[in-house]
Amino acid sequence: MSVETIDTLIIGAGQAGLAMSEHLTKDGVPHIVLERARIAERWRSVRWDSLVANGPAWHDRFPGMGFDEVDPAIRPDDFAPKEVVADYMEAYARKFRMPVRTGVEVRRLERLQGRAGFRTETSAGVIEAQRIVAATGPFQKPVIPPVIPRDAGVTQIHSADYRNPAQLPDGGVLIVGAGSSGVQIADELRHAGRRVWLSVGPHDRPPRAYRGRDFCWWLGVLGQWDLSAPAPGTEHVTIAVSGAHGGETIDFRRLAQEGMILLGRTETWRNGRLGFAGDLVANLDNGDANHDRLLDQADDYVARNGLDLPPDPQARRRYPDADCITNPIRELDLAQAGISTVIWATGFAVDYSWMKLDAFDASGRPVHQRGVSTEPGVYFLGLPWQSRRGSSFIWGVWHDARHIAEQIGIQRKYLDYHHQNAPQTEPA
Ligand SMILES: Cc1cc2nc3c(=O)[nH]c(=O)nc-3n(C[C@H](O)[C@H](O)[C@H](O)COP(=O)(O)OP(=O)(O)OC[C@H]3O[C@@H](n4cnc5c(N)ncnc54)[C@H](O)[C@@H]3O)c2cc1C
């Protein structure tokens, strides 16, 4: 069987794989991008129908192209629908003539024995590469905590499998997890006339916009996208933000006023009854404090820099507490409450089981420094907090890809020197 060889093999053609390819193309590094499905497949088929980008089009993009090149109707402050995001990625790959091969799955990867490089078994044959960039995504395997038994008589799906309200059986819906996915799905279901319960854990909830600037702009000028590590103990704090309805601040107290029933963290299951932690009020208070802190930092920035941005006192409005906040529900009989569906918006895990390499910690997560693996020749891209807070976002991954490309360039230089100065006996 013939074996194809290449300098660098990128696995995955989401935003991370494409950003990597752009930089390697600029640097003249021969490479191939393998994608088991289509370019930006997760935007196409693993997200709900009405999803729009969480950041405005001027911000959530690569430097090399605007969204208006794909859809002239998209203005800079719009939130691009998910299909437009996927079209944008495809157009980007075309614009930079990226060597993407779709419909090719990487099934196994291992180090070559006795010589440099890696052997990759794919659905289309074997490829040997000197270097590997794993760009298979920060959100690979949906995680459903084992709380409610499968045979409990209630439909249970992960947010990755939610598409639209019509897909669900009639009846009330409990959404577990109030990050950007959970709260948007809950809001959509409530607008569709469903009775909705939302289990709210610890979260950050930045204002959508303040004093005429989107929070993406504020986090940028305040240097917060570039934070290199989460605050101690807050790594798993989810961020509740939405571009739906043209972009609105997520305010759980408002949602409760509008009829959504808020609950604390989902914890236990006994005889059809779901138990919730007594942390709802603390979680809402901490979310509010996070919201208000950003307003304070923004005001401070405006004052220090003498910016002419209009005051926005409405942003500090606090909605009165609904009954579910003053009298938190600690137990709920799902059947009695009429809840037919539970949607777990509880996040994802990574799955690198196809990489037979010594590059992972005991929990299966890559061991790396800014994406450079402890296993020489292996790089990861698109990991949450890979180098900074913005690493898993469209624009953030582009900067991480530039760093990885630099690192690849450095290693190639050392090898060039070696080959140019190789002893006569060693094959070139
Ligand atoms: C609901 C949701 C909304 C989001 N909204 C935004 C947003 O508005 N703005 C923003 O900047 N970010 C957003 N993100 C975060 C992030 O941008 C996305 O998760 C994005 O898809 C990550 O891109 P990626 O290239 O790192 O990974 P992915 O998009 O997951 O791409 C990885 C690719 O690798 C392929 N692959 C995996 N394994 C193999 C294999 N063995 N062989 C071959 N191919 C393989 C997959 O098919 C996939 O196409 C959102 C995330 C979620 C979950």
From TrEMBL:
InterPro entries linked to this entry: Auxin_biosynth/cation_transpt, FAD/NAD-bd_sf
Gene3D superfamilies (alphabetical): FAD/NAD(P)-binding domain
Highest taxon of the lineage: Bacteria
Keyword Oxidoreductase listed: yes
Keywords: Oxidoreductase
Pfam families, alphabetized: Pyr_redox_3
Keyword Oxidoreductase: yes
PANTHER family: FLAVIN-BINDING MONOOXYGENASE-LIKE PROTEIN (AFU_ORTHOLOGUE AFUA_4G09220) (PTHR43539), FLAVIN-CONTAINING MONOOXYGENASE (PTHR43539:SF78)
Protein name (record): Putative flavoprotein involved in K+ transport
Organism: Paracoccus alcaliphilus
